[in-house]
Amino acid sequence: MDVRRFPDGEKYLRVVDDVKNENVAVIQSIHHTPDELLFEYLLLVDTLKDLGASRVTAFIPYFAYARQDERFKPGEALSFRTVTKLMESVGTDEIYTIDMHQHRVLKSSEVFKIPSHNLSAMPLLADYVKKTGEVQKPLVIGPDTEAEQWAKIAADRLGTDYDVFEKKRLGDDHVEVRPRRSNAKGRDVLIVDDIISTGGTIVEASKILLSQGANKVAVACTHPILAPGALEKIQNARVVSVVGTDTVPSPISRVSVAPLIASEIKKAGMK
Ligand code: R5P
Q1: In this structure, what DSSP letter does residue 183 have?
Q2: CATH number of the domain residue 109 falls in
Q3: Could you give the number of structural domains in the chain?
Q4: 167 is catalytic
Q5: What is the best residue among 195, 221, 239, 250 to mutate for testing ligand 1's pocket, by most ligand atoms within 8 Å of CB?
Q6: Would you state the pLDDT for residue 109?
Q7: Closest CA relative to residue 257, chosen from 147, 153, 121
Q8: pLDDT above 70 covers what percent of the chain?
Q9: Which of 130, 152, 167, 216 is flagged as catalytic?
């Protein structure tokens, strides 16, 4: 497609190919400039449907606004719900997300009316960690109870054990993390999470693990959002390596989710 801006800042979008009666897959990660990318997505899908596409399947590797799924203070916008409504309203037929932040909403069917699937990049990340050999038979740690779903997948893939910590968020960039059962003494550790934003969660978790006597701590996450200074903060916390996927482009996006998306496109019989 051809996308540019008019001199007044409005967006221009043109679908160049003939999509009439086609089954179309749209791949659009909605990350650092979410409002802009979301609007581009809405323009695109509405146009595809208007041009006669028979079906539009969306792949949204990083789904912005998923964290605002609850009214934490009276009067707050339920942004997650607004975004899903907009996506449906332009004619999205089916949606695939990757490790979408589903802490309070546990099933994507609770927010989407259209068929939805949440894929996981954790097997790809675990394979990458195994290949680098950076950590051996690591204890896999999810830094909060919601991360258990990812810790379990990574540990199963690596043939090892896992545990989760408990986390209390005290502010946008301030968290308190507490250990539960496991002890990292003498172990290599792999912390896994869906998102690294300010890096606060990883820093607090690695402090605990190193104070317990862990040999070393490595980190893997699906969406390296990385707010300014986050990577430096993590590196200063004596973490030996940190890797993310390309759902969000970043200096640590070394694992591609392309095979995950390609395999679903193939399964769905799209061209
Ligand atoms: C939230 O609960 C997520 O799973 C992540 O743990 C969180 O977004 C990480 O944020 P930060 O890097 O700012 O601590």
Answers
A1: -
A2: 3.40.50.2020
A3: 2
A4: yes
A5: 195
A6: 75
A7: 121
A8: 98
A9: 167
**Domain range spanning residue 81?**
2-119
Residue range 37-87, pLDDT digits in tens: 999 999 999 999 999 999 999 999 999 999 888 898 999 999 999 999 999
CA atoms of 143 and 165, how far apart (whole Å): 5
- Give me the pLDDT at residue 169, please: 84
Residue at 167 is within a domain: yes
Give the phi and the psi of residue 247 in degrees, each rounded to 5.
-65, -30
Domain boundary, last residue among 119, 147, 172: 119
Q: Does 47 share its domain with 131?
A: no
Q: Is 197 in the pocket of ligand 1 (CB under 6 A)?
A: yes
Task: Look at ligand 1, atom 1, and give the residue with the nearest C-alpha.
Answer: 195
pLDDT in tens, 178-201: 999 888 999 999 999 999 999 999
CA distance 200 to 178: 13
Query: Which residue from 124, 158, 63 is spatially nearest to 259, judged by alpha carbons?
Result: 124
Take atom 5 of ligand 1 and give the residue whose Cα is closest.
195
The Å distance, Cα 210 to ligand 1 centre, comes to: 20
Q: Do 65 and 127 lie in a common domain?
A: no
Q: Does residue 197 lie within any of the structural domains?
A: yes
Mean pLDDT of the chain: 94
Cα(19) to ligand 1 centroid in Å equals: 39
Using the atom order of ligand 1, give the atom closest to the CA of residue 203: 14
Residues 152 and 241 in one domain: yes
Identify whether residues 99 and 220 lie together within a single domain: no
Q: How far, in Å, CA of 189 to CA of 51, rounded?
A: 52
State whether the beta carbon of 206 lies less than 6 angstroms from ligand 1.
no
Residue type (1 letter), 250:
S
What confidence score (pLDDT) does residue 104 get? 64
Domain-located, residue 191: yes
User: Are both 136 and 62 inside the same structural domain?
Assistant: no
